[in-house]
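> call design_seq(struct)
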């Protein structure tokens, strides 16, 4: 016996590649697909004449009727050729007719594939046929956000939701505080617990409808994901029309801090009276989700069910938590119809399911209305109603949270909050007025840039969906998206989202909100000038990533230039050390001195430390956190008698990207100082800017490219730099060196690279970094030669930081290329730069995935984080800096 192994990337034995060999190639017009029918790869099922590349054969093979057909001819190959509604069936023995039932089964598979990609209409809404096949994990996803403008700490407290085409997903009140639970699985297709936002209809004691099931008793079903809302509609075989509208209520005084509403309308079109029940379900999150990892028993027994009543009338379900630190947050679920609440409820998922499943639960006709001592987060709320012919009924399903930010018990608060909520939304059409208010607010925010290029798809995207994603991630960034399901805080470097959104906020009259948001980052800078890498109310990882504080300068500069609000620079904020306040201007100067004079290496360039913008780029095995470095620095000053601002003595690696960020910060501080009478600070900024540019040109330029980092510790192997030709670190035998996209982008954006250098770098970008999927982050690197353990080494080539197309880095490059094209004197070079920029933008525009949904995947309304550079597939999470930097590239254009 001789054994061998095959892996996905090493196995090129694809069924579709042998299709032309086994059938007459003239039949294989348009797009085609094929799958093996056996593990030994002997025979195939193929399809031709598809409207786009799609995995139709796996659907055909799984159909019972077709499966029997294949079983009758197991030792041959099968081919289905589609020409509209006509099917030709062939085997290697010839052409044969299909029996009517099999033909209809195959045709139904074709229709479901054809209709699966949906469309984007003139309003920017994604229209999805729920009876078609699902494309992929991100494709049919929407994002919702609340509005806490004018309330304390909107960055941390603004609620947000992730919703798929069936209304599933989760809901957060702020930061990582969950209301509707996420689901902790390895499947990117699943965000929330499956019961979330779902409902059933019951008639004569029998289930006649389930909101996630479009196969039984559903003739048509459609989802429309619009800006900040999702609408879903069904038409049943028994004569009902059902509509759903899901969005987050804007904050109002006296209301719960976070409320998501689902309005369900049931219309009777059957011509007969209907006596029905509706049952809504969901799953509260645990107050401390981390307990699922540590102790599932603890997570269950420290919460019990709670019923909130108005006198003797039950109105809402909640959780009663035993640990005192959980009591400041009170979750609730409630339904209203004409001001009337639920008839009955259930808070036991095992009891609700019985021997069934969420598709067919046992308890629907009557819920037991029993309180539970454990496994309490599940909830089901029932309500009976009757409809005469042509009559309709509206139900409002609310889930939300009342929070005491001072840490006190939120029990009394939720009672008052719910009373106000019930009073307001018991009034007819009140929810419609709130919805219209939300829509008009989004219209105002998006009004800053509405291009008229003649390309309707582009204009619609830039006018509607792009500004919404930028706005969403200004508050949340990567803390919450469809595939980011676990706990994540706000990252310091994610202030880059404000670089784009500040234009929209200021234009919409929300400059105070932009100022408030930027202030949150200012509070996370330490007195020495380093910053917390992540934070919500308390920061963590101080000084770990050396680029963090430098991004703040650009955000402040953009805000001040746009608004003229120079008083902001004199405003005082708490210092992250916890030892008092200081002005924003002094915070910016501390960043400039720390990054430009103290935390520098042998060439007076900023240190790389644990990482700069690239989290996986760690070149030194021993790095100090901010407080440790500060302690070592103070000891050095005391020992040597140096003044504050002298360089910290070290042999660590220097980041050339940080040098670019430093020069930009110094130039912007110099410009701001002129209007403040800060001439001395302006001179300091000028000196740091000029010294940085000179050092970069003298030490980081390697003849064909700017280095990514300089290595200063006489490392074994004689390596002195990473990135650019002849660095000795290429893992690609066809390339003599390694090349990083950010060295091209940021030496241009910082005005360090001259025209000749731009020309030479562009040649290397075009040659080594440009792929069919876009501009990849870097070529392959032998990091192990440096004796360091970087996270890049855990990825396959083409994924993420190991040669993936990081789309926000690609958009930085597009922005840089467009800026350079206006400055260079060589017209041919300018045209090459413009060509690169528009090629790169084209690869990032999310609606392009409609053309090849099963190949590029992603989401047609929202940018994802990166593309695999080999396959072109859009990889999540949906949220990243991509949308913001795409917006900035469009501004540059």
């Amino acid at each position: 016996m001789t054994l061998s192994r095959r892996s996905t990337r090493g196995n090129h034995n694809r069924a579709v590649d042998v299709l032309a060999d086994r059938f007459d190639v003239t039949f294989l017009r348009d797009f085609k697909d094929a799958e093996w029918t056996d593990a030994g790869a002997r025979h195939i099922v193929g399809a031709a004449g598809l409207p786009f590349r799609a995995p139709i054969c796996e659907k055909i093979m799984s159909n019972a009727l077709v499966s029997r057909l294949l079983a009758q001819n197991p030792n041959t190959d099968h081919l289905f050729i589609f020409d509209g509604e006509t099917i030709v069936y062939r085997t290697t023995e010839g052409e044969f007719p299909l029996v009517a039932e099999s033909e209809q089964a195959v045709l139904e598979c074709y229709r479901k594939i054809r209709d699966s990609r949906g469309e984007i209409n003139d309003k920017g809404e994604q229209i999805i046929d729920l009876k078609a096949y699902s494309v992929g994990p991100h494709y049919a996803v929407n994002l919702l956000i609340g509005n806490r403008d004018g309330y304390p700490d909107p960055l941390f407290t603004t609620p947000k939701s992730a919703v798929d085409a069936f209304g599933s997903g989760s809901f957060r009140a702020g930061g990582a505080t969950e209301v509707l639970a996420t689901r902790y699985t390895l499947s990117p297709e699943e965000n929330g617990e499956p019961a979330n936002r779902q409902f059933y209809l019951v008639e004569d004691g029998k289930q006649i409808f389930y909101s996630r099931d479009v196969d039984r008793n559903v003739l048509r079903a459609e989802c429309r994901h619009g800006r900040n809302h999702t609408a879903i509609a069904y038409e049943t075989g028994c004569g009902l029309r059902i509509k759903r509208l899901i969005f987050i209520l804007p904050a109002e005084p006296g209301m719960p801090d976070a409320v998501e509403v689902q309005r369900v309308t049931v219309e009777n079109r059957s011509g007969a009276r209907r006596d029905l029940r509706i049952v809504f379900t969901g799953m509260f999150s645990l107050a401390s989700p981390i307990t699922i990892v540590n102790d599932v028993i603890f997570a269950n027994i420290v919460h019990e069910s709670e019923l909130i009543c108005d006198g003797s009338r039950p109105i809402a379900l909640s959780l009663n938590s035993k640990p005192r630190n959980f009591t400041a947050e009170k979750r609730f679920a409630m339904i209203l119809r004409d001001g009337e609440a639920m008839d009955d409820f259930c808070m036991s998922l095992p009891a609700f399911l019985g021997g069934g499943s969420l598709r067919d639960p046992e308890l629907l006709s009557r819920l037991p209305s029993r309180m539970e001592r454990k496994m309490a987060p599940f909830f089901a709320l029932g309500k009976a109603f009757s409809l005469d012919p042509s009559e309709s009924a509206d139900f409002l399903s609310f889930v939300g949270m009342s929070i005491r930010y001072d840490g006190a018990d939120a029990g009394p608060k939720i009672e008052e909050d719910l009373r106000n909520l019930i009073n307001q939304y018991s009034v007819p059409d009140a929810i419609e007025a709130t919805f219209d208010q939300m829509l008009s607010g989004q219209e105002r925010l998006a009004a800053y840039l509405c291009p008229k290029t003649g390309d309707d798809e582009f204009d619609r995207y830039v006018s509607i969906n792009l500004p919404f994603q930028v706005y969403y991630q200004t508050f949340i960034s990567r803390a919450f998206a469809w595939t980011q399901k676990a706990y994540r805080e706000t990252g310091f470097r994610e202030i880059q989202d404000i670089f784009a959104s500040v234009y929209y906020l200021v234009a919409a009259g929300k400059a105070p909100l932009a100022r408030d948001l930027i202030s949150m980052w200012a509070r996370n800078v330490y007195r020495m000038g380093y910053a917390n890498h992540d934070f919500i109310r308390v920061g963590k990882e101080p000084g770990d990533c050396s680029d963090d504080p430098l991004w703040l300068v650009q955000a402040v500069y953009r805000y001040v230039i746009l608004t003229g609000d120079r008083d902001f620079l004199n405003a005082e904020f708490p210092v992250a050390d916890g030892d008092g306040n200081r002005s924003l201007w002094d915070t910016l100067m501390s960043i400039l001195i720390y990054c430009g004079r103290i935390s520098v290496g042998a060439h007076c360039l900023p240190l790389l430390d644990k990482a700069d913008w690239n989290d996986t780029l760690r070149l030194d095995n021993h790095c100090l956190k901010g407080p440790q470095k500060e302690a070592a620095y103070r000891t050095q000053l005391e020992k040597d008698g140096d003044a504050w601002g002298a360089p910290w003595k070290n042999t660590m690696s220097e980041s050339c990207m940080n040098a670019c960020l430093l020069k930009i910060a110094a130039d912007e501080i110099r410009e701001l100082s002129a209007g403040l009478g800060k001439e001395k600070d302006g001179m300091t900024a000028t000196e740091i800017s000029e010294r940085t540019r000179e050092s970069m040109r003298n030490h980081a330029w390697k003849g064909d490219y700017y280095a990514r980092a300089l290595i200063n510790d006489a490392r074994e192997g004689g390596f002195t730099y990473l990135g650019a030709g002849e660095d000795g670190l290429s893992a690609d035998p066809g390339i003599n060196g390694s090349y990083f996209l950010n060295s091209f982008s940021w030496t241009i954006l910082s005005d360090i690279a001259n025209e000749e250098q731009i020309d030479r770098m562009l040649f290397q970008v075009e040659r080594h970094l440009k792929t069919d999927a876009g501009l990849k982050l870097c070529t392959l690197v032998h990091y192990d030669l440096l004796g360091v353990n970087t996270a890049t080494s855990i990825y396959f080539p083409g994924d993420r930081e190991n040669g993936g197309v990081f789309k926000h880095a690609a958009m930085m490059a597009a922005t840089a290329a467009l800026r350079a094209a206006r400055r260079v004197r060589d017209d041919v070079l300018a045209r090459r730069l413009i060509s690169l920029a528009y090629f790169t933008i084209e690869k990032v525009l999310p609606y392009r995935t409609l053309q090849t949904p099963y190949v590029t995947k992603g989401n047609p309304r929202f940018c994802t984080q990166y593309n695999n550079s080999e396959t072109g597939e859009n990889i999540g999470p949906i949220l990243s800096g991509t949308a913001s930097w795409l917006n900035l590239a469009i501004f540059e254009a």
